[in-house]
């Protein structure tokens, strides 16, 4: 199965009003994801830094880039691409949209939602 064959579904993860500019909101899916509002855009990425097991939602956000507070790796929220070491691998990026005050993310069906635990 290729990445384009992965089955996904749109799910509501939070309210738009819960998102602060340039701050991450960790969502307890499995695996966890984080949601951001930066530069008037919404982003959703897998929440774990690709360098070491640490939440990216705790990081600093500026100009659509999140900086992991553990070892200062920087990841582009648009593409997931690593911008500097120690992270060298990209983080997964998920399609996201707002409908009214609802933030919806297109997640793989393999991701468990908090209420499904």
TrEMBL record:
> What's the protein name?
Bifunctional 3-phenylpropionate/cinnamic acid dioxygenase ferredoxin subunit
Q: Which domain of life is it from?
A: Bacteria
Q: What class of enzyme is it?
A: oxidoreductase
The EC number on file is 1.14.12.19
Q: Does the keyword Iron-sulfur apply?
A: yes
**Sorted UniProt keywords:** 2Fe-2S, Dioxygenase, Iron, Iron-sulfur, Metal-binding, Oxidoreductase
Single GO term (MF): 2 iron, 2 sulfur cluster binding
Q: Which Pfam families match?
A: Rieske
Q: Tell me which species this is from.
A: Streptomyces bauhiniae
């Amino acid at each position: 199965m290729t990445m384009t064959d992965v089955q996904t579904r749109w799910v509501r993860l939070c309210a738009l009003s819960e998102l602060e500019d340039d701050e991450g909101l960790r969502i307890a899916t499995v695996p966890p994801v984080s949601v951001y509002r930066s530069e008037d855009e919404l982003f959703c990425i897998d929440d774990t830094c690709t360098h070491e097991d640490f939440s990216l939602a705790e990081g600093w956000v500026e100009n659509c880039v999140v900086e992991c507070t553990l070892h200062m790796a920087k990841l582009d929220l648009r593409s997931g691409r690593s911008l500097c070491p120690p992270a060298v691998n990209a983080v997964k990026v998920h399609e996201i949209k707002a409908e009214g005050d609802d933030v919806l993310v297109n997640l793989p069906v393999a991701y468990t939602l908090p209420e499904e635990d």
